[in-house]
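Predict the holo structure. Ligand: uracil.
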Amino acid sequence: MTPDPAPSMHQLLAFYLEAGVDCALSDEPVSRMTDEVAAAAVESRPSRPAAALQPALEPAAPPPHIAAPAPDAAIISAREAAAPAPSLEALRALMESFDGCALKATATRLVFADGNPQARIMFVGEAPGREEDIEGLPFVGRSGKLLDRMLAAIGLNRGNAYIANVIPWRPPGNRTPTPQETQICLPFIRRQIELVDPDVLVTLGNPSTQTLLATRDGIMRTRGRWFDFDTGSRKIRALPTFHPAYLLRQPSYKRLAWQDLRAIATALEDGSEATAPSS
Ligand code: URA
């Protein structure tokens, strides 16, 4: 039997892309097979003196991003760093230099915000995707285009609205951020909201809603319901609605999203508590 020819570089890259591998984690390849073999060797031969195993076990030097501090320490240092930031510029600068979140090492750049910091309304999504990571701006991909249309439907745009994410670095391959990563990033987005100090905060989708509004209810229950986002010095009215990426997959929910948008417009018009119809 003739063996299959080795795949070309192009075919291999196409395979990786299809499997969701769309970024490199380090400049040098690391053989996980070798690591596993070494780990298995340790487990299966506990009685051998460690020195005798040394050559086979020599692990490859860990890529630099593995050196991020333990999550608890990182959460504390994020809190200590974010809370006193006197301005959005200062907050951005300290996030640029913060090394406590491992996502920073795999992301291309920080995705801080887009829009007008003086806006009366702020939208917060979950985390940047591939396009956002490349451009350094939130919501510029497909779901961003839909968000722009949603904003335009109630007279908003990036000149009179402010947009950010709970997580400012793209998770590799767009995986879901871990709870620790979310907790590490939370002090930064909380401070960002305090500094923008909008009249209305809109959380886009479940992760942003549950993280910022401290609820365990799912988006089907929370959307269209007013919450308070407590900054410590004041309460900002907050309305959860569907994430535009979800609306792209489930267009039938656009009808409910439209009701939420109307409630947002009313809240901005009269500055008073507005209630979105719930169905
Ligand atoms: N999804 C998000 O939650 N945020 C972005 O910036 C883009 C997609």
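The beta strands are 114-115, 121-125, 162-165, 200-204, 227-230, 235-241. The two ends are 64 Å apart (CA to CA).
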